Amino acid sequence: MSGPSTVLRISLLLAACAVILVSSDIGKEITCCTKVNKSKQNSNMIVKYEIQKESSHCVNAIIFTLHDGTSRCSDPKAKWVTLKMKELDRKKRSAVPSNRR
After folding, report:
1. Contacts of 68 (CB under 8 A, 6+ apart)
2. What pLDDT, on the 0 to 100 scale, is given for residue 95?
3. How would you class 88 by CB atoms within 10 Å of its CB: exposed for 0-12, middle for 13-18, buried for 19 or more?
4. Signal sequence span per UniProt (predicted)?
5. Per-residue confidence of the chain (101 residues) as pLDDT tens digits?
6. Where are the alpha helices (DSSP H) in the chain?
7. 77 DSSP assignment
8. Residue 1, CA atoms < 13 Å, CB-side half-sphere
9. 46-52 sheet: strands from edge to edge
10. What are the phi and psi torsion angles at 69 (to 5°)?
11. How many angstroms separate the CA atoms of 9 and 32, rounded?
């Protein structure tokens, strides 16, 4: 029973496994906040932010990236968080050159 049909079956099985592996999240880095820190971070260390919406096991969060590349999950309802986001948005807008004459 080790004829061409067995080889074909094994090949199809390996191909199916490869499709499942490629389409899954295995080996991918997943950044997801499952809880948020409600206390104020050192806002001078924050260089950018990302908004995370709730999905599956992730919670609503603002992911702040610090100058050393680390990330912090913060509560989007915290006053200091919204103020820091506005500050970063202002800095980003002022850094983009205007085409007005």
Report:
1. 45
2. 83
3. middle
4. 1-24
5. 567 788 778 777 766 655 454 443 343 334 799 999 988 888 899 999 999 999 989 999 999 999 999 999 999 999 999 999 999 999 999 987 766 55
6. 4-23, 79-95
7. T
8. 2
9. 46-52, 61-66, 71-74
10. 90, -10
11. 39
Alpha carbons 63 and 72: distance in angstroms, whole number:
6
- The pTM of the full predicted model, rounded to 2 decimals, is 0.64
Residue with tokens 């990302």, as numbered in its chain: 50
Rounded to 5 degrees, φ, ψ at 33 are -85, 125
Distance CA 60, CA 76 (A): 7
Residue that is written with structure tokens 């080889």 in the block:
7
CB proximity list for 46: less than 8 A, separation 6 or greater: 64, 65, 66, 67, 84, 88
Rg (Cα) of the chain, in Å, rounded?
23
